[in-house]
Amino acid sequence: MTSTDHTSTDTSTDGGTDGGTDGGTDGGTDGGATKGAAGLRPTRQRLAVSAAMETFSDFRSAQEIHQLLTRRGDTVGLATVYRTLQRLADAGEVDRVLTEGGEAVYRSCSTSHHHHMVCRVCGTTVEIEGPEVEDWAHRVAEQHGFTDVSHTLEIFGTCTACA
Amino acid sequence: MTSTDHTSTDTSTDGGTDGGTDGGTDGGTDGGATKGAAGLRPTRQRLAVSAAMETFSDFRSAQEIHQLLTRRGDTVGLATVYRTLQRLADAGEVDRVLTEGGEAVYRSCSTSHHHHMVCRVCGTTVEIEGPEVEDWAHRVAEQHGFTDVSHTLEIFGTCTACA
DNA sequence: GCTCGAGTTGACAACGATTCTCAGCACCAA
DNA sequence: TTGGTGCTGAGAATCGTTGTCAACTCGAGC
User: Fold this and answer.
1) Less Cβ crowding at N or C end of chain A, within 10 Å?
2) Predicted ipTM of the assembly
């Protein structure tokens, strides 16, 4: 998994996929998907996905979240789940990270810059701040002449419950 | 992209996919794919892939490497490229990391524990060691009661040539 | 209330990276 | 030569994700 860098001003380099379904219909406004920003509607589906994100603290895949919604009686199309999660991630309200197999998983998170420490057995996830790491990353980048620097970091281990 | 943690003793959690093509025919021996270890043969294809890995220093996808091989006149099947790269990665001879889109990319690397600083424009990659980060990660993990700790870290920026 | 335009949905189709399948090949020891 | 094991690769299959588009929803303006 890769942690999400909330302070990064990275724009996605996957132009081919990020044009996506919503590309043509977006007003281009950056706002929270559920916050009534111009052009964005708080639809039942979006509210349901947002609410579902608050019910777990580990990382879940879009399909898992879709199933969770169905079990809650909040039927939302899978494509809509993906879209909504992408919106939430773009808005910094959820973290999107990748499993080792390349699958995207999501988790509600705080908006400050942080990293994740994840139990490799049960998935329990702890948010961690690391000023030392920020300092180090920027220092190292300067040494090599890199500018506009961002980073991702993830810690794995076995939590006390699973040890 | 996610950096590879060479000192990690993680075993893959993707049981479904890692049984793979080679599962049935492997002797189960862990050795360098090109090093004549018991049960593993230095086939033309494996040698070609290994040699190709030494011709570039940025991260390349399996398909890019496949094309590179073809252009060199070393025709190797795509499935074989994937398999061989997986072998090399398992042996710690190449780094396998994921792009933001979830695609696996590979690069020849040193076997010591290191991280990558990658130019987001041209892909130039610099290997970096970070003892401070190791210390920090272990300290933080201890604070939260995590054991058997590993981590991934990647730095992105714009290199001097692209700035 | 009606119309229109913009936003959005969702089932199904499509995509693309990756892995599986299996007949056939390669190699080596007996 | 035989038998066993390792390996290949083209095409099939897999799977997470995204595209498509008809239909729906909503709100502004008349």
Assistant:
1) C
2) 0.80
Judged by C1' against the alpha carbon of A21, the nearest nucleotide is D19
Q: What is the DSSP string of chain A?
A: -----TT--PPPS-HHHHSTTTTTT-------TTTT-TT----HHHHHHHHHHTT--S-EEHHHHHHHHHHTT----HHHHHHHHHHHHHTTSEEEEE-TTS-EEEEE--SSS-EEEEETTT--EEEE--HHHHHHHHHHHHHTT-EEEEEEEEEEEE-TTT-
Beta bridge partners of A97: A105
Q: Which amino acid is at B134?
A: E
Structure tokens at A87: 């919106």
**Global pTM?**
0.81
Q: CA-to-CA distance for B55 and A43, rounded, in angstroms?
A: 52
End-to-end C-alpha distance for chain B, whole angstroms: 21
Chain B interface residues facing chain A, Cβ-Cβ under 8 Å?
1-2, 8, 10, 12-14, 17, 98-104, 117, 119-120, 126, 128, 130, 132-133, 136-137, 140-141, 144-160, 163
- The residue of chain B nearest to residue A163, with distances taken between CA atoms, is B147
pLDDT, averaged per 10 consecutive residues of chain A (163 residues), comes to: 43 36 37 48 93 94 96 94 94 92 92 87 90 92 93 92 88
* Strand D–CB A19 distance below 7 A: yes
CA distance B45 to chain A (A): 25
Cα(B121)–Cα(B156) distance, integer angstroms: 10
Q: How far apart are CA B73 and CA A104, in angstroms?
A: 37
